[in-house]
Write a structure and sequence with these properties.
The chain is mainly α. Helices cover about 80% and strands about 0% of the residues.
Length: about 180
């Protein structure tokens, strides 16, 4: 993108922020292709990219009153688009987790056989053994039922989980 195109986008945003509703069309014409390309890189799915870009454009228009005209308009738009991309990723992750949980629930037998119960017990013992090789601090992170609100606690839990995976692979191989 060259400076002229960037300036055209900025000027359309300034006009829209000043109340000129006819600037929406100019902004759409200039910003849309760049926005879709930006979102496509972040989302990774062609079908989702257009939807996320549309959500981002609507949010840009609805928040145009917050636009600081002394700053670069494209950067501001990309900041909003980045938030929409992250939201889409979270939605997709939650959907995958819910689908996996539903599949697991279907696989679980309400009346397990004796063999299944023994396998479950063996798996639980293996997990307890792997957890036992962790440091007391790591075990405390897993035992805590409180939600991790700080980035530090979330990162510590992530690292502890990585160590547990490594231990599991060393003791029992890949899942």
């Amino acid at each position: 993108m060259n400076q002229v195109e960037r300036k055209t986008i900025h000027e359309a945003m300034v006009r829209l922020a000043d109340g000129d509703r006819s600037a929406v069309r100019a902004l759409l014409d200039q910003l849309w292709p760049v926005l879709v390309l930006f979102v496509r890189r972040g989302v990774g799915h062609e079908q989702d990219a257009e939807d996320v870009a549309q959500e981002a454009f609507l949010r840009i228009c609805s928040r145009i009153a917050d636009f600081d005209q002394t700053r670069d308009g494209l950067s501001w738009a990309f900041g909003i688009a980045k938030y929409e991309v992250m939201t889409q990723r979270q939605r997709r992750r939650r959907h995958r987790e819910a689908a996996a949980a539903a599949e697991l629930a279907l696989l679980q037998d309400p009346n397990p056989t004796q063999e299944a119960a023994l396998l479950d017990r063996d798996l639980l013992r293996a997990l307890e053994h792997a957890l036992g090789t962790l440091t007391p601090e790591d075990r405390q992170l897993f035992a805590s039922s409180a939600q991790a609100h700080s980035a530090t606690v979330r990162k510590r839990r992530q690292r502890a989980l990585e160590r547990l995976r490594s231990i599991w692979r060393r003791l029992y191989g890949e899942l």
